[in-house]
């Protein structure tokens, strides 16, 4: 039987993260997008190579908006970043919560057609 998945699937994909589309409820989940160690600090680079805006959401952790190639960013600590078309953004975080944390576009049609993954924080 299918395992509980992050977001399910509509059975087809249009989007990917790091060239990998989330396949939904599969018995062999894909690898995490990032492996982080508990208590360490990281900078993540979000690069949107599409002509669409994507509100990218991370579960379980908060990050600080650092910089963008398109605009100045408010110094917010948040769990969601609106990536504009062709925008590259860097954010920083402290991996202070162990687990597998969903990382996905919050446009549900994008999320369910591939624009989903997860990161892992190991204890
Ligand atoms: Cu999207």
Reported for the largest beta sheet, the result is: 5 strands, mixed
Question: What share of residues is helical?
Answer: under 10%
* CATH architecture term: Sandwich
Please list the strands of the largest sheet in the order they lie side by side: 1-9-8-3-6
Q: Could you list the spans in which at least 5 consecutive residues all have pLDDT below 50?
A: none
Question: In total, how many beta strands?
Answer: 9
What oligomeric state best describes the polypeptide chains here?
single chain
User: What is the fourth-level CATH superfamily?
Assistant: Cupredoxins -  blue copper proteins
User: Would you tell me the overall average pLDDT?
Assistant: 89
What would you say this structure looks like, in words?
This protein has 123 residues and is mainly beta. It has one domain: Immunoglobulin-like, CATH 2.60.40.420. The protein has one helix and nine strands. It has a five-stranded mixed beta sheet with strand order 1-9-8-3-6. The protein is globular, with a radius of gyration of 14 Å. The relative contact order is 0.31. The model has no long low-confidence stretch (mean pLDDT 89). The site of copper (II) ion has 5 residues, from loops.
Give the key terms.
40% strand; mainly beta; 123 residues; 5-stranded mixed beta sheet; 3% helix; Immunoglobulin-like
Question: What's the layout of helices and strands?
Answer:
Blueprint: E1 34-37, E2 41-47, E3 54-58, E4 63-68, E5 77-78, E6 80-83, E7 88-94, E8 99-105, H1 108-111, E9 116-122
Parallel strand pairs: 1-9
Antiparallel strand pairs: 2-7, 3-6, 3-8, 4-5, 4-7, 8-9
The structure holds copper (II) ion.
């Amino acid at each position: 039987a299918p395992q509980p998945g992050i977001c399910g699937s509509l059975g087809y994909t249009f989007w990917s993260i790091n060239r990998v589309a989330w396949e939904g409820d599969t018995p062999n989940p894909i690898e995490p997008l990032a492996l982080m160690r508990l208590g360490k600090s990281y900078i993540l680079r979000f690069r949107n190579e599409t002509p669409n805006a994507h509100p990218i959401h991370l579960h379980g952790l908060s990050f600080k908006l650092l910089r963008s190639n398109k605009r100045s960013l408010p110094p917010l600590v948040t769990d969601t970043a609106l990536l504009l078309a062709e925008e590259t953004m860097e954010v920083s975080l402290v991996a202070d919560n162990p687990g597998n944390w969903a990382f996905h576009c919050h446009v549900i049609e994008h999320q369910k057609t591939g624009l989903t993954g997860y990161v892992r924080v190991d204890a």
